Amino acid sequence: MGSWNSVHMEVLYNILGWIAFCSWSISFYPQVILNFRRKSVVGLNFDFVLLNLTKHSSYLIYNASVFFSSAIHRQYRKKYGPNEMIPVAANDVAFSIHAVILTVFTLVQIAIYDRGNQRVSRTSMGIVSAAWLAVAVCIFVALPSQSWLWLVSCFNILQVVMTVIKYIPQVVMNFRRKSTVGFSIGNILLDLLGGLTNYGQMVVQSVDQHSWVNFYGNIGKTLLSLVSIFFDLIFILQHYVLYPAKKSVISTNLDTVSKDQLLKSDHPHSEDA
User: Fold this and answer.
1) Which string of b and e fits 31-45 if b means at least 16 CB within 10 Å?
2) Helix (H) or strand (E) holding 145
3) Cβ-count burial of 46 within 10 angstroms (0-12 exposed, 13-18 middle, 19+ buried)?
4) CA distance 253 to 228
5) In sequence order, what DSSP letters do the residues of 195-255 get, joined into one string?
6) Which of 48, 56, 29 has its CA nearest to residue 172?
7) I need a surface site. Which of 181, 182, 208, 210 has the fewest CB within 10 A?
8) For residue 234, what pLDDT is reported?
9) Average pLDDT for residues 2-22, to the nearest whole number?
């Protein structure tokens, strides 16, 4: 049974973990609030949300299984060593539960709010179908030998693949529209903070244990942080540098002022009538 060598490192580990939980959890709300205020989901890529649900569902299955299952604990320590700590924390499980709930809520918003001509692509539906079909195959393979650690690792790999894929439709959509209007940057800034603190949490555990098994023993969590940070930086570049919203707003305001001035010049005595 692994244990902490330093109380201070354990406290820092927990602080970073719950900061990551708060950041990632709160990151869902700017988009939900934006959708509610606009009564529209135009600008939010539906493929992103659908793929996100698959990603968070698979990550929840992995986190909950590794955190609660004694059978998986035994298989993990048999593989990586009896003194190794389980690489999933309580904040990981809490985040996954919250993420699934909020993603489902966002899908409900997509169903009831103005969608314009946007829809889920066949490609994304095909990817999601293939992902869960692969999961079914893995379950049948794992059942005879009761390879539970291997099975939940498949879910972990799936969530990493979905993490990589899910961002691409939104990045492409922003590029084609030359705009990030309708896509909340607050979500991305909080996601970036969550990714950094999540990675920091893993570093703290590895330093305390004098072992880097934590990183490759939970490769999904490692790649999740790195991939999230990478795409968050792309979104930040799109929003603030390539397609800044302020320029669009200023341009729109100038057009409105110009139209008003033209109307006044065409009807100079309209106020006296």
Assistant:
1) bbebbeeeebbebbb
2) helix 122-145
3) buried
4) 35
5) HHHHHHHHHHHHHHHT--HHHHHTHHHHHHHHHHHHHHHHHHHIIIIIS-HHHHHHHHHHH
6) 48
7) 210
8) 95
9) 88
Quick check: 263 pLDDT over 60?
Answer: no
Cβ neighbours for 52, distance < 8 A, ≥ 6 positions apart: 103, 162, 166
* pLDDT at residue 127 greater than cutoff 80: yes
Q: What angle do CA 95, 99, 105 make, to 5 degrees?
A: 150
Rounded Cα distance, 219 and 227, in Å: 12
Q: What angle do CA 39, 45, 46 make, to 5 degrees?
A: 85
- Output 220 or 96, whichever has higher pLDDT: 96
Which of 189, 28, 21 minimizes the C-alpha distance to 95?
Answer: 21
Q: At 39, list the tokens.
A: 């009564």
Give the Cα separation of 15 and 17 in Å (integer).
5
What does the block give as tokens for 119?
């829809």
Count CA atoms closer than 13 A to 135's CA, side-chain side. Answer: 20
pLDDT in the model for residue 86: 85
Residue 144's contacts (CB-CB under 8 Å, 6 or more residues apart) are none
**At 99, which helix (H) or strand (E)?**
helix 90-112
Q: Say whether pTM exceeds 0.85.
A: no
CA–CA distance, 173 with 125 (Å, rounded to integer): 17
Residue 60 tokens read as 């929840």
pLDDT tens, 143-177? 999 999 999 999 999 999 998 888 888 899 899 99
When pLDDT is averaged across residues 224-230 and rounded to a whole number, the result is 88
In 3D, which of 173, 35, 163 has the Cα closest to residue 105? 35
